[in-house]
Amino acid sequence: MTRRSFHRAPEAERRQDLITATLDCISELGLQGATVREVATRAGVTPGLIRHYFSSKDQMLQAAYREVMTGMTSKVADAADKGQSSACARLHDFIVANLTPPVADGRALSLWAAFISHVRVDPDFAEIHRESYLAFRSVLEALVADVLTEAGQAADTKRCQELAIAINGVIDGLWLEGTLVGDLFSETPLPGIAVRSVEVLLGGISLAADTQQT
Amino acid sequence: MTRRSFHRAPEAERRQDLITATLDCISELGLQGATVREVATRAGVTPGLIRHYFSSKDQMLQAAYREVMTGMTSKVADAADKGQSSACARLHDFIVANLTPPVADGRALSLWAAFISHVRVDPDFAEIHRESYLAFRSVLEALVADVLTEAGQAADTKRCQELAIAINGVIDGLWLEGTLVGDLFSETPLPGIAVRSVEVLLGGISLAADTQQT
DNA sequence: TCAGAAATTATTCAAGTGTATAATTTGGGC
DNA sequence: GCCCAAATTATACACTTGAATAATTTCTGA
After folding, report:
1. Residue B121 sits at the chain A interface (C-beta within 8 Å)
2. Which residue of chain A comes nearest to B116, CA vs CA?
3. Domains detected in chain B
4. In chain B, what percentage of residues exceed pLDDT 70?
């Protein structure tokens, strides 16, 4: 009986493969389905190898959680930088990026919810959540400040903070609705609702991009 | 060796105890912690009894999910009926009820997230989600229609629907923020932000109750 | 009071769980 | 070409899991 042959992968690459496999398991089978054996199988690897890269299964899950959150935040932050034009256009793109794939899709929501449900169970997960939430909101708060100054309005910290909280609420809520019951919104696209809602929250500032049609 | 004595409980009561124990397990230990044995222990019962009330562990989880959602919806719907005064006051109370305990608390969020993360895993959970979401939004949509007509504005279906979606988004999103990182909002209470945001979304209609102070 | 149906417990089972450890293979540096 | 550290596999273990079954207790109704 001969052993199966294998190939030695660079540490970073193998870690990434394991994390990706972990996330696949969680989104398709739930946290309970992310067993050491299932993850290893999907990564094309033997169960024992996991403990060579992570000191425990829990640490692997935490690494996976971190990747999900930094991935989502960086994607929407990128979208707000691509179109360099105006602050309004950047906020507009930021909102839309939050409510369209790949940020707004079932897999992302499934992963997010699975981890959130563990925030109260494990303090390590709570810390990861807190960090990623603050990172996201600080991006949004800066964006709001830019929009306000661009519109010639006062951008004091207090007001920016409250607006960012409210806007974050709209985005989060619509992200939930869209990804959970997206099929109910074929006729009333969410990004449009979101943009209009935020415009209203901002006191009537228009975020319309130049290339917009209805 | 004598068997432990027990008492025969009415079916409804025992089922309720098992469901409550299930929810306690999930909120404190996660879905993975809601094992047949742990639930039975907390319900003061033997593991085997669970299969006498539910044909499988999964069916018990589904019953628990249903209870969580109907409980939350009925609580906020009740809050919108107590003060019979005006439609504006009812919407106001509805919003506040969503963002204050017991609806807005860590336990509820933990439970909700755990179940949501299984919506994509198990079609039965998806169906429960869909039903409870539509029930909630139909309550909100009726409330919005009342407010609009009360303010003398047009309350056509299309507009009510879009407004309900947006308002639901604000509520969901702020509910998330408040329950997840509530300690960050000691100085900027969320119910206030929510009410003001909805007022703006409604085009400036004031929802202020008579007994309001700042 | 005393059956007997139904609720509850006790016990068992096979499968799956994370982890620990030892045996092997790989691939880069000499 | 070969050696040796490190990556990977293989195997084993102790424990937990959901479920199935049989044995017992409870309590109602006649």
Report:
1. yes
2. A113
3. 9-54 (1.10.10.60), 66-201 (1.10.357.10)
4. 94
Is A177 within 8 Å of B172 when comparing Cβ atoms?
yes
Name the H helices within B99-189.
106-116, 123-150, 157-180
- pTM, to two decimals: 0.92
In the block, tokens 């923020």 appear at: B177
Residues 76 through 105 of chain A touching chain B, CB cutoff 8 Å: none
**Nearest residue to A60 (alpha-carbon basis) of A45, A75, A76:** A45
Tokens 């912690």 sit on residue:
B33
**How far is it, in rounded angstroms, from Cα B54 to Cα A53?**
41
**Chain A interface test: which of B28, B121, B144, B179 (most A C-beta within 10 Å):** B121
pLDDT of B177 higher than 90: no
Q: Which two tokens mark A147?
A: 């929009």
Contact of A53 with A14, CB cutoff 8 Å: yes
C-alpha to C-alpha distance for B199 and B208, rounded to whole angstroms = 9
